[in-house]
Specification:
With 242 residues, the chain is of the alpha/beta class. The protein has six helices and ten strands. Strand 7, helix 6 and strand 8 form a beta-alpha-beta unit. The chain is globular. Bound molecules: adenosine-5'-triphosphate (ATP). The site of adenosine-5'-triphosphate has 12 residues, from strand 2 and helix 1. This is ABC transporter ATP-binding protein.
């Protein structure tokens, strides 16, 4: 008999008792101290907290760049702690996009070619021109990074990250190097991607006002979660001031 029960939908991430200790003995640094967290699929989530509170450590573990010391991390229904290094590499390649503070574009390649570097090895990518169109740079495909402003370079980096159609997009200080007006245009692009492609977006930032555009805000302190706030009303990135 065919299974007619509705398909179960999983959160993007379920994290239970996650700890991360760097180093050993008296030099040990407890970066995460038993984090429990659920990130629903399709949300735009902002992670705030003081420097050194463990935000990047968490991002690196759920992004498949590092492993926790103890505890469990599930991506959908898959236990990431049990993945082999090969499986983690596949997870990063097939499901994850990263955007960093500094855009890490290849200076000798055009915007189009920077995006194509990723689409050439992805499973079912977008056309690089479509990805550039999505970030409002369809008319700048032939320009080199040096011919683009900081905000435009960051938008190329976002196009490169989303062109492989990732399930989750991790952004570590995406507006950290930008003035506030330019930063707002980058946040607007991230919101569009979340809404149009249904990509789960996680933004780590020191710009606390960014929280106003999120579905969910996670406040981090001293290796743990201090508070999780669900926003009943959200602001448009255009209206955010910092
Ligand atoms: N590779 C490492 N080896 C040793 N300690 C580390 C390493 N990476 C991070 N740490 C330490 O772990 C703690 C958490 O660092 P993490 O980078 O996750 O904080 P953060 O909240 O992202 O900070 P920031 O906002 O400054 O980027 C800090 O005390 C940091 O010094």
């Amino acid at each position: 008999m065919p299974d007619e029960s509705p398909k179960k939908t999983f959160p993007a991430f379920s994290i239970k008792g996650l700890t991360k200790v760097y180093g050993e003995g008296p030099a040990a640094v407890h970066a995460l101290r038993g984090v429990d967290l659920e990130i629903p699929a399709g949300e735009l989530v902002v992670l705030l907290g003081p420097s050194g509170s463990g935000k990047s450590t968490l991002l690196n573990i759920i992004g498949g760049l590092d492993r926790g010391t103890k505890g469990a991390v599930f991506f959908q229904d898959q236990d990431m702690s049990a993945m082999t290094d090969r499986a983690l590499t596949r997870y990063r390649r097939d499901y994850v996009g990263f955007v960093f503070q500094f855009y890490n574009l290849m200076p000798s390649l055009t915007a189009y070619e920077n995006v194509a570097l990723v689409t050439e090895i992805a499973r079912s990518p977008m056309d690089p021109n479509d990805a550039l169109g999505l970030v409002g740079l369809g008319n700048r495909a032939d320009h080199f990074p040096s011919q683009l402003s900081g905000g435009e370079q960051q938008r190329v980096a976002i196009a490169r990250a989303v062109a492989k159609k990732p399930t989750v997009l991790f952004c570590d200080e995406p507006t950290g190097a930008l003035d506030s007006a330019t930063g707002r245009s980058v946040l607007k692009v991230l919101k569009n991607i979340n809404e149009e492609l249904k990509t789960t977006v996680l933004i780590v930032t020191h710009a606390a006002a960014t929280a106003d555009m999120a579905d969910r805000v996670i406040h981090f302190a001293d290796g743990g979660i201090r508070e999780v706030v669900e926003n009943k009303t959200k602001r448009n990135p255009e209206d955010i001031q910092w």
